[in-house]
Design a protein that fits this description.
globular; 10 helices; 267 residues; 8-stranded mixed beta sheet; 16 strands
Length: 267
Amino acid sequence: MKIVILAGGLGSRISEKTHDRPKPMVEIGGKPILWHLMNIYSAYGLNEFIIALGYKGDVIKEYFLNFSCLNSNISVDLQNGETKVHRKISHDWKIDLVDTGLHTQTGGRLKRLKEWIGYETFMMTYGDGLADIDISALLDFHRNHKKLATVTAVHPPARFGSLEFDGDQVSCFAEKSQTQEGWINGGFFVLEPEVLNYIEGDDSAWELKPLEHLARDGELYSYRHKGFWQPMDTLREQKQLEALWQSGDAPWIIEPKIHLQNSRENL
């Protein structure tokens, strides 16, 4: 199963970090958030990725072209030009890096990938959000309802502390990572290729008419994820994710699971 990751936006709300790189290349713990995101899927044996490039897409291309060297010790002989990679870190990842335009909207980027996606069920998410989502359960949910699209619904992160009162006295104050009311689009979609017919062109935002029309036609279901979910839209949120990583208890780090392929053969 192929995983589409949208990685072409300008990242203007976190411009402190994106003047020289696309937002998915902003680092958490010394690794691009894109790497963290791909590891979530890889933990479930899903290792085929299509990265939709746009703003500074060459930075992402250069990262993966030099991935082995960047993640290993190397020896360079300047006299004869020979190099040797020591303790090579290996991933079973197959990655298509596809230029989808500088100003193309999210739906347009997805539409441009039609030939790369093919004719089978695929997954799609944004290149700037992490979660401790159970990918296996998400896929089971999508297979069971037999519709064209599943969106992962999440509680939005709380911006401020929560107050509870006893008269005018504050009886409880809590810094909550997520609110407990309302659900929003958290990415981590499972989609059938027919959803591309709902996208008109480059100017189509996936979150507007395509999803609205899928919902209207009864083809959109939501998988409700009640665990950790955090986007990286601002510098403050990047620092929150970095602090979680440095604590040694980052919720999105998932132990490798059994490959999904064997458990889905009869679906």
